[in-house]
Each structure stands twice: as C-alpha cells, then as structure tokens.
Amino acid sequence: MRFIPVADAARSIVFYREILGFEVRDQRGIIEAVLGPARIQFNAQDRVPGDDAGARSRRSIILFFETDDVEAMHAAIRARGGEPSEIEKVNWIKMRMFEIRDPDGHALWFGQSYDKPHSRGPSSTLRKALPELPFRDVAAAVAHYRDVLGFRINYQQHDLGVMDRDDITILLIARTPSHAGIGSAYVYVEDADALYAELKAKGAIVGGEPVSYPWGLRDFKVVDLEGNRITFGQPFE
C-alpha cells in the first residue's frame, strides 16, 4: 500500500485507469487504484495520512512496480496513449526498467529482473496447512461452513467435518478436553473485498470491513457459531 498526494483526483483517476490500466475504486472518499497486488491510495485534498490538519503535501514520490513482463507493460502503456521512457538495464539491481510520470509528477518505475528470472529455489518441505477448529455441535458447524462461508463438504461424520473451498481445507472437530478453547486460522485470498461482500450477504459474523495494513496485507475477520476465528487476507505491494 502506498499513499500519494494529488492535486486533482479526477485527473489522476483518468491517468491510472486509462493509461496504466489500474482498477480505480472509491473507498469511503479515499480513491484507491489497484493492479494485481499493487495498491495506491490518493485523495482530492492533496494530503497523505500523517500530515497535520490543513497541511498541503507537495512531495514528489517515486514508486516501483515489479512486473513479470516489462516489454508487455511498456507496450500496453504506449498503446493507451502514455509516454513511458525507453526500457533500460539497471545493472546494480539486475533489472530492466522504464519510467513514466503521473499528472502530479510522481515517478512510476516498472521493472523486471534479468538475473536468472526462471531459476528455482530449493525444493519445498512444507506443503499445506490443515487447521482444526473445535465445536460442541459439529453438525451445526458443518451446515454453517457450507451455507454461510461457502465451503463444500468433503467428508462428514458425527465428530468430524472435512470442509473444502478452492485450495483450502479446514477440519471441524469435536470439542474434547484435548481440543478445547477457541481455534483460529489465517487464509490468503485473491480479493478480500469481494469475499467480504459475499460472506456478509450470506449472514456471516464479520468483524468489520477489510483493512489494509502497512505490512502488505488487506484482511477482515469472520467468527463462526462457536467463536472460532478465520481471517481472510489479500497480499499487496
């Protein structure tokens, strides 16, 4: 997440949407431009969070975006009428990059690594997590996860529910002395806002709208029928 000051929000919306290809959203008066995991917020008051009340921020900002195909990004921006610089190699960071300026003079750099871009790291040891959430009434929990949270029943018996949604599996288990208390899980998602709207419409117990944090996650919390908590988070840069 990055906050940038702008002099004219309408002008910035046109540039980020029509030239750069961002999706532009209005989040309660804060205008947000989104492209994949990248997220930028700006507003018409020409201020950024942390400024004193009434202060006018005129700072020039440099933003860097890493892309999987710098040639395609460069061509797309030009095709939309943008005027990016030529693509150049920046040897000290091993990237091919180009620059374009937004209407407020902020420098936007798009780059792609050319230093072994297809090399793989060591093979993974850990593959997938399988959280267990305890319930006094497993049957009611299975129905709630199916009808409200959108999971599919993989397997069910009186003391166990195996629930799938996309690539995620959660075990709903009987609450026993060895499985007491409240469980929790963190689930990474593609679009936190869309999932929030879906679950809220189905009657899920949500703990507020999605919030973006400086460490690069936008998430919201859901509490099930017995107090177990699932946090759904969307990574961004």
Distance between the termini: 6 Å
**Which fold name is given in CATH as the topology of the largest domain?**
2,3-Dihydroxybiphenyl 1,2-Dioxygenase, domain 1
Our Rg estimate from Cα atoms comes to 22 Å
Distinct helical segment count: 4
> What is the share of helical residues?
10-25%
Q: Structural class per helix/strand content?
A: alpha+beta
* Series of H and E elements: EHEEEEHEEEEHEEEEHEEEE
Q: What is the level 1 CATH name of the largest domain?
A: Alpha Beta
The pLDDT mean sits at 86
CATH homologous superfamily annotation of the largest domain: 2,3-Dihydroxybiphenyl 1,2-Dioxygenase, domain 1
Index terms:
237 residues, 2,3-Dihydroxybiphenyl 1,2-Dioxygenase, domain 1, 2 domains, five-stranded mixed β-sheet, four-stranded mixed β-sheet, elongated
Protein topology:
Layout lengths: L1 E2 L5 H11 L3 E5 L2 E6 L2 E5 L19 E5 L3 H10 L8 E3 L4 E7 L5 E7 L18 E4 L2 H10 L4 E6 L2 E6 L2 E7 L9 E5 L3 H10 L3 E2 L4 E3 L3 E7 L5 E7 L2
Parallel strand pairs: 1-4, 5-8, 9-12, 13-17
Antiparallel strand pairs: 2-3, 3-4, 6-7, 7-8, 10-11, 11-12, 14-16, 15-16, 16-17
Please describe what this structure looks like.
This protein has 237 residues and is α+β, with helices and mostly antiparallel strands. The protein folds into 2 domains: 2-113, Roll (2,3-Dihydroxybiphenyl 1,2-Dioxygenase, domain 1), CATH 3.10.180; 132-235, Roll (2,3-Dihydroxybiphenyl 1,2-Dioxygenase, domain 1), CATH 3.10.180. 17% of the residues lie in helices and 37% in strands. The chain has 4 helices and 17 strands. It has helices spanning 9-19, 70-79, 138-147, 192-201; strands at 2-3, 23-27, 30-35, 38-42, 62-66, 88-90, 95-101, 107-113, 132-135, 152-157, 160-165, 168-174, 184-188, 205-206, 211-213, 217-223, 229-235. Strands 13, 14, 15, 16 and 17 form a 5-stranded mixed beta sheet that branches. Strands 1-4-3-2 form a 4-stranded mixed beta sheet, with helices on one face. The protein is elongated and about 65 Å long.
